[in-house]
Design brief:
Number of strands: 0
Shape: globular
Number of domains: 2
CATH superfamily of the largest domain: MFS general substrate transporter like domains
Radius of gyration: 22 Å
CATH class of the largest domain: Mainly Alpha
Number of helices: 13
Strand content: under 5%
Helix content: over 70%
Order of helices and strands: HHHHHHHHHHHHH
Structural class: mainly alpha
């Protein structure tokens, strides 16, 4: 090899190393933007209800929220196969550009129905970010660190959600709700060029093991070669996990109020729940890397079962905050560990499709969680039976993970 050719190879290797170093922070930033845009509706909703020209009522507001979640579900189901077919970078660019542009358009919506359509369309892009980002950080991270890579990535979602809440406090009274959507779209002006420059321009899919050609439709892999039982198990686990996340985030304050806690205490407990979520993400990844994704995911769901059930017992003083904190530690990261487990369980050519399918089907749980909590409140049994119901959901999540086969045919790294 000549000196010139050797230098070109060395430069190429350095360029790949530089690109790899950008993958995790860029994916984290994309997930943070997703978190901002998914939570922004809840932040601006009180202002929308007071918008005199819109005549928005709670029923229509709920319909708009559901339309957005349906869009997220469809986007998650679609983006995985897209990423497996056309490549991760292209899929990430499509999702980030689409939800940023459509979220910006929400600022100029003339009425609730236009706004609802735009939220659905933005949801298509929002739902696609997570499957692509998880696939990228797992494929380019250090071997044996899939749990940490996924849980650290998901802290971006919570940072985005917190940023939305903090901005809303100052921006909406001073400038109006429209500016929340403008501010949410602005970071994409910087992020998109960075994604285009530094994400690897890889082949759309790696070939499966044993020399077999990758199927034309990567979704087919989810039900072929013995993967169907595991796929169903993952879908059930994701449904249960997101039911818990959205059900508790929606109704925990009101359930605690029915238990006799004041409004301030109930809202503080919701904050503590989400602080626990971030702590859980930071702990769950290293634990999963050490003991394995399968036992860690089962243990996390089981711990969530215990601490949710304990919340049905009225505790004095600081005890209730400790209970809520521990419930947050295990509830939120259980779902993230499911995603990490999926990313290591399927062959590379179907990885994004597998994550997207679980995320998309899980969105049915995201819709069901608030409905379940609302029904329990309407029936007057949300406390204590609401926590027992959520504990049962967590137990079903653990049982579903136990139903995942340890070694499917063709799996690259079965759990």
């Amino acid at each position: 090899m000549t000196d010139g050719s050797r230098s070109r190879v060395t430069a190429g290797g350095q360029d790949r190393t530089v690109r790899r170093g950008w993958i995790a922070p860029l994916c984290w930033a994309a997930v943070a933007l997703e978190g901002f845009d998914l939570v922004v509706l809840g932040v601006v909703l009180p202002a929308l209800l007071d918008e005199p020209a819109w005549g928005l009522d709670p029923a229509t507001a709920s319909l708009i929220s559901t339309a957005g979640l349906v869009g997220v579900m469809v986007g998650a189901l679609s983006a995985g196969p897209l990423a497996d077919r056309v490549g991760r970078r292209t899929a990430m660019l499509i999702t980030v550009v689409s939800f940023s542009v459509l979220s910006l358009a929400c600022a100029f919506a003339a009425g609730p129905w236009t706004f609802g359509v735009l939220r659905f369309l933005a949801g298509l892009g929002l739902g696609g970010v997570l499957p692509v980002a998880i696939a990228l950080v797992n494929e380019h991270g250090r071997p044996g660190r899939g749990g940490s890579a996924t849980t650290i990535l998901m802290t971006g979602y919570h940072v985005g959600a917190v940023a939305t809440s903090l901005l809303g406090i100052g921006v909406i009274p001073a400038f109006g709700w429209q500016w929340m959507f403008v501010l949410g779209a602005l970071p994409a002006v910087v992020l998109v060029p960075l994604l285009a420059r530094f994400l690897p321009d890889e082949a759309p899919a790696a070939a499966p093991a044993a020399g077999r050609a990758a199927p034309r439709n990567p979704v087919a892999q989810l039900v072929k070669d013995g993967y169907l039982p595991s796929s169903i198990a993952f879908w059930v686990a994701s449904f249960m996990g997101l039911l818990l996340v959205y059900g508790l985030n929606t109704w925990l304050p009101q359930i605690m109020r029915t238990a006799g806690y004041g409004l301030g205490a109930a809202l503080s407990q919701l904050l503590v729940l989400n602080v626990g979520a971030v702590l859980g993400l930071l702990v769950a990844g290293p634990v999963a890397d050490r003991v394995g994704l399968r036992p860690a995911t089962v243990a996390w769901f089981c711990a969530a079962t215990v601490f949710l059930a304990l919340l049905a017992v009225r505790m004095p003083g600081v005890g209730v905050y400790v209970g809520v904190l521990l419930a947050g530690v295990f509830v939120f990261s259980s779902q993230v560990l499911v995603y990490a487990y999926i990313s290591r369980h399927y062959p590379a050519h179907a990885r994004a499709s597998a994550i997207g399918a679980a995320s998309g089907i899980g969105r049915l749980g995201a819709i069901s969680g608030p409905v379940l909590g609302g029904l329990l409140l309407q029936a007057g049994i949300a406390y204590p039976w609401g926590f027992f119901a959520f504990a049962a959901v967590a137990a079903l999540g653990a049982a579903a993970v136990l139903g995942v086969r340890r070694a499917d045919a063709g799996a690259t790294q079965p759990g």
